[in-house]
Amino acid sequence: NPGDVFTAEIGINTHSAKTAVAGSINFLAYANDKVEDKKVFKQGKQVGLSISGVYDDTKIRINPSARYTIRGRNTRYESNTELIRDRLRLYGNELELGLEVGRYFRGGWNFSPMFSLLKINNNEANYGDSKVMSYGVSIGKRFSERISVGTWFKILSGDTDYSRIDLRGYQISSSLLAVL
Length: 180
Known about the structure:
This protein is an all-beta fold and 180 residues long. It has strands at residues 5-15, 19-30, 33-35, 38-42, 46-56, 60-71, 74-77, 84-88, 94-104, 109-120, 130-142, 147-160, 165-166, 169-178.
């Protein structure tokens, strides 16, 4: 029985003809995970801060973003007695920075190089920091104000556990947007 989660978020955004900025703060609190109706785990509370912006005109689009997540300690319980076994920060605080710079072309086509950096701090189980950098491109086509498609390709490079675990790979994503 996974624990329930309570989420609260507050945000603000503003925009003009070519720019937009959005920011938010969210809070997550979790209930206990249970096995056979006995507590076994409770994930720590979490606070997230994010800000993003966009400059978008008929030729270019610039989209920077930043996100920071602060994580609390998790509680693990003895499975037969429900006594607290330990309270450790199993997931470190997390910082993600991103930038996408796009160019529009005739016929509704667009091309955007992308870069992001994700850093997760060491946890109290001492697995070391995690770092992942991604480089990529997106290609898309806007058919109208309400319909567009896109494809993203990213190459990931990074490591964790004091460089003992390699996090290299790639990611391919696609989207179809239809606004009714």
